[in-house]
Amino acid sequence: MTAVLDRTRTPAPAHRPRRRAGNRTDQLFLLPAVAFVAVTVVYPLIYSVVQAFQDVGLREVIRGGADWVGFANFADQFGRAEFWQALWLSLVYTVGTVVLTYAGGLALALLFVRRFAGRNVMRALLMLAWILPTVVGANVWRWLLDGSYGLLNAVLRGLGLIDGDLFWLGQPGPAMVSVIAATAWSFAPFAMILLVAGLQGVPTMLYEAARIDGAGAWQQFRHVTLPALRPVSVTVMLLIFIFAFKTFDTIYLMTRGGPGGATLTLPLYAFQEAFEFRRYDTAAVATTVMLLVPLVLSIFYFRSLRREETA
Amino acid sequence: MTRERIRLVVAVAVTAVYLLPVYWMLNTSFKQQADVFARPPALVPVPPTLSAYQSAVFDDPDIGRGLLNTFVIATGTTLLTLVVAVPAAFALARLRIRWVTPALLLFLAVQMIPAVNLALPMFVLFGRVGLVNTYAGLIIANCSLSIPLAITIMRPYFLSVPGEVLEAARVDGCTTFGAFVRVALPVSIPGVITMAVVSFLGAWGEFVFGLALATGDELQPVSVVIAKLTNAFGTRWNELMAVSAVVAVPVIVLFVLLQRYIVAGLTDGATKG
């Protein structure tokens, strides 16, 4: 669990002074947090973007000082097939995770929005998948997916769907599917909670009207639920996209980016450039690109918030 | 059967299947090494044994040290987060200060930043000031992401404290700090618990900062120790599952005890309003 984003309170109206202006020392309540984030987040980020324009190897890291090389690192990276491969794999992994998480989360939400005994307990239990430490989840999935003795293959063999061993994490395609599935497993309950709230907000009047017009269950879902759920769906998809795009731990723990680089997404690529090859400058190029994607998406995100609020 | 009954049965089945990985972890962790290779695998460990816990957890000093490190880092992160984030959330909710909207946007935007983007420059910068391979460095790194999240979680609780009450406290001669400590904080305890638990759990499972900033064995959190040992475990899945279970159990216990706060925090933080 990395982040819970608060989509409602963002543009809350600032409290304007009514009778007297706030005390100057009031500023001190906020100052430590802003200073902390400035030093530990904003400064390292700027530093890293600057590194992308310098020649930084192990020597420069130890001794300090680095030569300015302009866009040479970018030119180097943009000319490499490995870089584009990593970006492509990031997109495959991210989009796959968004689709699977949303589908799973919506299915769960449609079930758990209904009333029945023990509903809240079960909803809470599902959240366990979301709060379980990644290292635990990733290792359990590795074991479930083990080719010879894993539970999944035992089930598939029992059903007669496969014959012999299938090494999920040992082949490029299945490895990607596996990391996507493991990620979606942990994200879907989070999506469910948001979507349940969204479903509860759909006016029951709409369903009554649809029923009077003779709409069946599927038609109600298609023409009432989905359109009414749209704003929440957009939020959920954007959040999951951002979560998935920056995922490092699940993939690293399950495949280390393998087999043969088949799951080496951009965060793993950047980490490998820095900590295995000691190319801090090209790693910075990769992280800078990683920064741009959430940046662009956040703009979309805030815009969708605005629209929701004015709607 | 009524429709409600059918729903209940379906929901129980779905929940059970969904949490099967968690059960399978526990199941495997109580098995003998030989039983791990049974085909088809046994659905319950017969006879259950603690041998995997004995050999992989209690007899392995690396895991014990990793757990201790994780505990220190998670506790430190939680405390520092509380000290910094609670007053900030109060200020953003209830004080007449400048830059409220930019600060909120900053804290929200920070949560979208990949941990890798911070871990790489931190490794270089922390190296310069001697923070690599220190608890302080790991705690600071964890706080960089937990503080903005905590502020986002905490602020709504302060928003629900009526401004008039705080105003009255001030008219009665309370300083802002007095109004914060005596009036706002006591009624916002559920929020404090929520953010403390979320911060602790976040740091408990944290992996990237540990991997990048604890380069020596001494201070590595257990998540990194497990990742390092993963290959060494080879096919000793019962032992790997025992270690995983030990890491998961505090999370599960906290979750069961404080489930109300956690789920409320996660859902409120994300949807209300």
UniProtKB/TrEMBL annotation, chain A:
Q: Which compartment or compartments is the protein found in?
A: Cell membrane
- Where mainly located? membrane
Q: Which residues form the ABC transmembrane type-1 domain?
A: 87-301
Which cellular component terms (GO) are annotated to the entry?
plasma membrane
**InterPro entries in alphabetical order:** MetI-like, MetI-like_sf
Question: Per the UniProt entry, what species is this protein from, by scientific name?
Answer: Pseudonocardia cypriaca
Q: Where are the transmembrane segments?
A: 28-50, 86-113, 125-144, 175-197, 228-245, 283-302
**Similarity comment: family membership:** Belongs to the binding-protein-dependent transport system permease family.
Membrane topology summary: Multi-pass membrane protein
Q: Where is this region: Disordered?
A: 1-21
**This protein's name:** Carbohydrate ABC transporter membrane protein 1 (CUT1 family)
GO biological process entries:
transmembrane transport
Q: Specify the domain of life of the species encoding this protein.
A: Bacteria
Taking the record's annotation, the residue ranges forming a coiled coil are none
- Which Pfam families does the record associate with it? BPD_transp_1 (PF00528)
What keyword terms does UniProt attach to this protein? Cell membrane, Membrane, Transmembrane, Transmembrane helix, Transport
TrEMBL record, chain B:
Topology versus the membrane: Multi-pass membrane protein
- Which Gene3D superfamilies would you find in this protein's record? MetI-like
Domain of life assignment: Bacteria
The cellular location(s) given in this protein's UniProt record come to:
Cell membrane
Q: Which residues cross the membrane?
A: 7-26, 71-92, 104-129, 135-158, 179-204, 240-258
Enumerate the Gene Ontology biological process terms.
transmembrane transport
UniProt keyword Cell membrane, yes or no: yes
Which keywords fit this entry according to its UniProt record?
Answer: Cell membrane, Membrane, Sugar transport, Transmembrane, Transmembrane helix, Transport
Query: Cross-referenced SUPFAM superfamilies, in alphabetical order?
Result: MetI-like (SSF161098)
Looking at the record, the residues that make up the ABC transmembrane type-1 domain are 67-258
UniProt-listed PROSITE patterns: ABC_TM1 (PS50928)
What is one cellular component GO term in this UniProt entry?
A: plasma membrane
- Give the UniProt family note: Belongs to the binding-protein-dependent transport system permease family.
Q: Which PANTHER family match?
A: INNER MEMBRANE ABC TRANSPORTER PERMEASE PROTEIN YCJP, MALTOSE TRANSPORT SYSTEM PERMEASE-RELATED
What name goes with this protein?
Multiple sugar transport system permease protein
